[in-house]
Amino acid sequence: MKIKQYVPSTSNLAYSVGVTLDRFIKMKQDDFPFASGELSQLLRDIALASKIVNRETNRAGLSNIGGAFGNTNIQGEEQQKLDVIANIRFTRALTKGGEVCAVVSEEDDEVIDLQNKSGKYVVAIDPLDGSSNIDVNISIGTIFSIYRRVTPIGSPIQAEDIMQPGSQQVAAGYVLYGSSTMMVYTTGNGVNGFTYEPSLGEFFLSHPNMSAPDNGKIYSINEGTSNLFEPGLNKYIETCKQREYSARYIGSLVADFHRNLLKGGIYIYPATSKAPNGKLRLLYEANALSFIAEQSGGKASDGAQRILDILPQSLHQRTPLYIGSKKMVEEVEEVLRNYREFV
């Protein structure tokens, strides 16, 4: 019997699809030695739910699941049909997985106790960010944060399990549903991105060790409300224009953040005279993206302090957000500070 030694092919006839998300998670389990497989499975559960949501968004125009659902959420925002569908998909996946004891969702007024007595983790999630863009076929996303519960396993969920600062996250990520679907996440040891291959039904590592440029030439902000901004912010925006920076604002947080993470830039959703606390939610939007920003070498601030240091006081607490390339965030913080000192 002849035995032929395998030699990797250098032929262009078959391209390499690379490392799957599942295999990557197994390879990186040493990054969180305190876990015994639960966190790895939890990330797989989120990936599975995102595949289902990806399928739903791709056929939204054909299956009458676009448009408004007819209800408003706790934010006073009109729910889209896909908001509701995505919330159900992720909550169901997290329930069946068994690793999560409670979920905080943008679409639910209260904490959802999943009744998983052995669950070690709490998940804060925006199931479908930017869903108002669905009907015009613009990229949308899912944002998630993962925390370890601090009270004993098996006991009732307490406020201290939920109201943790972002610095206590053990993992965070987002899924971008766009021209291709990507899942980007961190467990506190760098940031990695995976692109979904629909014909195989798998996420493959496409963006290893993602690093945000230290500086950039993109600013992302809704300038239509500039008359409501504080003077320092308008000064910073004017400086960006004088430098001929590019204004890029999709209106979908995940899409804007993802572009700036890759290309270098700053995303700003500030406090205004009408919304002095800002609009974005701390627990399930700002914290997750801030963790990713810092792990990729960027920075995130509310204009005065580090986002991840803020101790939440309420479930759907809002915050201003300045996030992106480190030098750009530091510059706008300095401009704001200088103007505020004279007020």
UniProtKB/TrEMBL annotation:
SUPFAM superfamilies: Carbohydrate phosphatase (SSF56655). GO terms for molecular function: fructose 1,6-bisphosphate 1-phosphatase activity. It is found in: Cytoplasm. Keywords: Carbohydrate metabolism, Cytoplasm, Hydrolase, Magnesium, Metal-binding. Mg(2+) 1 binds at E106, D126, L128. Pathway: Carbohydrate biosynthesis. Residues 213-336 form the Fructose-1-6-bisphosphatase class 1 C-terminal domain. Its EC number is 3.1.3.11. Homotetramer. This is Fructose-1,6-bisphosphatase class 1. It comes from Shivajiella indica. The gene is fbp.
